[in-house]
Structure formats: C-alpha cells, structure tokens
Amino acid sequence: MELKGSCHCEKVSFKVLSHTPAPFMRCYCSICRKCQGGGGYAINIMGQYDTLEVTGKEFLKEYQGLRDKETKELCGNIRYFCGECGSHLYAYDKKWSSFVYPFASAIDTLLPELDPKEAYHIMLDSKAKWVAAPQPNDQHHAFSEYPDCSLEDWHKEKGYYVK
Predict the structure, then answer these.
(1) DSSP secondary structure of 57-84
(2) Angle at Cα 146 formed by Cα 81 and Cα 120, nearest 5°?
(3) Domain total in the chain
(4) N or C: which end of the chain has fewer CB within 10 A?
(5) What are the C-alpha distances in Å from 163 to residues 61, 69, 104, 152?
(6) Tens of pLDDT along 65-118?
(7) CATH classification at residue 39
C-alpha cells in the first residue's frame, strides 16, 4: 500500500510503500517520547526504504538521539523532521537498511479499515511517570522492552499485511 505523508506546513511531503501500515505499536522510550511524540509515546509504521520519495528535501533536518547519555552511545535511528515547522516525519536505521519508519501522525492516507482493535505498548520501563498506559487485556499488550513479535508477523497474523 502506498502511504503519503507530510509535515504541518506542507513544505516536506513523502510517499512510501508499506506492507505493514497499521499503527498498532506505541513506544514509550524517552527518545520516541521526546523527539517524536509529546503525548507520552510515539507510533511508527514500517515502509520499504527503496520506495521512499521525498519532496522538499531542502527543508529536512535530522537528529540522532543518545541511547545512553552517560556513555554518549547514539541510538541507531536517525529521525527526520521539517526544519520549518518541526513536524517529525520518519526514522531510518542503517541496521535495518531495507526499512524506513514513518511517524504515524505524519501519514495522510491511512485507511479506516486498517484501524487495529488492539495496541502493543512497548518500552514501558522507560515510560514517564505522568503517562497513563492501559492495563494489559485482550486489546492492550504490555512489554517492558521489545514485543514478542515483529511488525511483519503481527500484520500477517491479524490480516493487515498488504502485498
């Protein structure tokens, strides 16, 4: 499925193909929370990097967060955002060079039938104390760090995988 996204001021836009477009995983780590979210967590989706097309590249800025502030170890993800309005657009990590991770809020074309009925809440050990995460149940799954399945596996199991 082709996803189209843009920043708030519309100076940067992009499109990317995704087999896994359902926004079901919420990350509470401090990097996602502070660099992307603002609401206590961030939601990324996964796209095929070789299909990413960006318009307005001259307005793009990038940021690579610190995984560990004491050792100055960098996070693998490079986050791309609009230098004009500050909207986060997507992240890229050379470790998983086939993929790009669009920020779900930047996507303009999510279809209603891809609205998952459950959510995975990950990196809860990093959650800010003021954030209320739902208690685990049939619709909310909680993980102190990473989940027990991949984005692709989850999409295939739930019938959201798009060829």
Answers:
(1) GGGEEEE--EEETTTTEEPSPEEEEETT
(2) 80
(3) 1
(4) C
(5) 31, 40, 19, 11
(6) 776 778 777 777 899 999 999 999 999 999 989 999 999 989 998 666 677 888
(7) 2.170.150.70
Residue labelled with tokens 């890229």: 92
116 part of a folded domain: yes
Burial group, residue 161, by CB count within 10 angstroms (0-12, 13-18, 19+): middle
Distance CA 123, CA 128 (A): 11
Give the separation between CA 72 and CA 57, rounded to whole angstroms.
28
**Residue 19 carries which side chain, given as an amino acid letter?**
H
DSSP state of 106: G
What is the CB neighbour count within 10 angstroms for residue 71? 8
User: For residue 163, is it within any domain?
Assistant: no
For 157, phi and psi rounded to 5 degrees?
-65, -40
Ramachandran sector of residue 56 (left: φ over 0; alpha: ψ -120 to 50; beta: rest): left
In a domain, residue 107? The reply is yes
Q: Flag whether pLDDT at 34 surpasses 80.
A: no
Tokens of 112: 């209603």
Say which amino acid occupies 82.
C
Report yes or no on 122 lying in a domain. Answer: yes
3-state helix, strand and coil shares in percent for the chain, rounded to the nearest 5: 20, 35, 45
> What is the rounded distance in angstroms from the CA atom of residue 2 to the CA atom of residue 18?
6
